[in-house]
Specification:
Layout lengths: L20 E5 L15 H14 L3 E4 L27 H13 L3 E6 L9 H8 L5 H4 L3 E2 L22 E3 L5 E3 L14 H16 L4 E4 L41 H12 L7 E4 L5 H4 L9 E3 L3 H4 L4 H18 L4 E3 L8 H4 L8 H9 L9 H17 L3 E5 L20 H5 L43 H4 L6 H15 L6 E2 L3 H5 L2 E6 L3 E6 L5 E2 L4 E5 L7 E2 L3 E6 L2
Parallel strand pairs: 1-2, 1-11, 2-3, 3-7, 7-8, 8-9, 10-11
Antiparallel strand pairs: 4-6, 5-6, 12-13, 13-14, 14-18, 15-17, 16-18
Helix pairs in contact: 1-2, 5-6, 12-15
Length: 558
Amino acid sequence: MTQHPTPAGAPNDADWWRQAVIYQVYPRSFADSDGDGLGDIAGVTSRLPYLADLGVDAVWLSPFYPSELADGGYDVADYRDVDPRLGTLDEFDTMVASARRLGLKIMVDIVPNHSSDQHRWFQEALAAEAGSAARDRYVFRDGKGAAGELPPTDWPSSFGGPAWTRVPDGQWYLHLYAPEQPDFNWDNPEVREDFHHTLRFWSDRGVSGFRIDVAHGLAKDLSEPLRDLGEALSYQPDALPDDGSHPLWDRDAVHGIYRGWRQVFDAYDPPRFAVAEAWVRASRRTAYASPNGLGQAFNFDFLGARLNAPELRSTIDSALADARGAGATSTWVLSNHDVVRHPSRYALPDGYTKPDIEAWLRTDGQQPTPDRESGLRKARAATLLMLALPGSAYVYQGEELGLPEVADLAREDLRDPMWVRSGGRVKGRDGCRVPLPWTRDGASFGFGAGGSWLPQPADWGTYAADVQRGDKDSALELYRAALRLRRALVVDETLEWAGTDLQTERGLLHFARTGGWHTVGNLSDEPAPLPEGEILLASAPLPDGQLPPWTTVWLRTG
């Protein structure tokens, strides 16, 4: 089995993350070792050789903590344990040791904005009196109205409905997500110290990095009287103020919290690394990537951009400039556990917005009919573009298999709280969380010996890893070849545009990296001349002298 050295371009192990390829595992849907239909830690361990062979540098695990699954594991009941349905701490340690032997690093998700309502602290708060120390760890307030029967503010939940739930003694508690996810009060020193403890707990067990969920939501303006939002109810990044003045999101005070975390990270050799999930304006993102804070922040602009050469070039330029300004590297993402998989997004009409995609999901992916062949071709072209960019590439489980969104899940099978909380307006994220197919046949296509917690499509076996392995035209072999070449080609963090403005307007995206590595993407419906150079890899077959529509090629010149 392949043993991986320090990623090319990283001067020392402390900088391993700067140009790493990080593979996101959603544990409940990755591999099931005991046949109960739910993926688990031992299942992850069993598939680590596959990930090492794929060529990634690190594995990021979405939450595996004890949870009632009100939000797919992002409702955490105990931050320093493994959900018994998914394994044990001993099995986690075995996984980390196995990863280390294969040259892989392990990252874990931290969910600091809110806990589960089953967390020991929240249960203590429910049993305690108003104004108690137990309730001060969360955000409890008296309601409005003559008898306190109205919520304290007009704040909405991100999952739909109000962000306040009343408890039997009449007070209300804040939950910016599901009612089962009460928000912590980060003004409370006990909360801050407990999360320092959690970061040390996992770092001591060999974890190399952390992905920080809702990183922009911890610090809140809880001064009395609490402020209603009025007409400014949207939580979308572009609707947030650019001065940190929103009462709930992206407040400047959040960076004081992360400076404390940085002290924890830097106590280790090498220092631990973190990446922020911060849905904020691009102009505000760099603060989360500060070397005095988390170190890196997800750039979702690339994910959200159309597959359009001028738009992507502008997005890439902005992302690289922001990362340089923060002393970090940029991040590149095409899919994750919260969005429709990119082969399906690209199979829809160009220019489809998030509301358009949600409307498409409500039709079970039937209206309009997706062009799967075109979507996969565009996804392959986008993948080679992404993997050639300087910075960290984040790959979501199954994208290396070209998996589409499972848009036709029956309503009774949906688990995402978005469906119920939105009153059926948002079908939710279950379609990108369907368990992976490992084999052509079997009860759950190799996911486990039994079924799977979300239904798999009847044709899932055609995407299976064992079907694609060795097929030079498959998505899996494209990823394997690209990651192998990337490791050899990456020298530094620079990028230079090689194409003209006119070429970009016509759909050609052409940039060069140090060492003569050129990437050319034809993001148009017309063929283009193929530049001179040694062909290293292409996302689709290349006719003589031509770069076909929706195709990306890697070349070496000089």
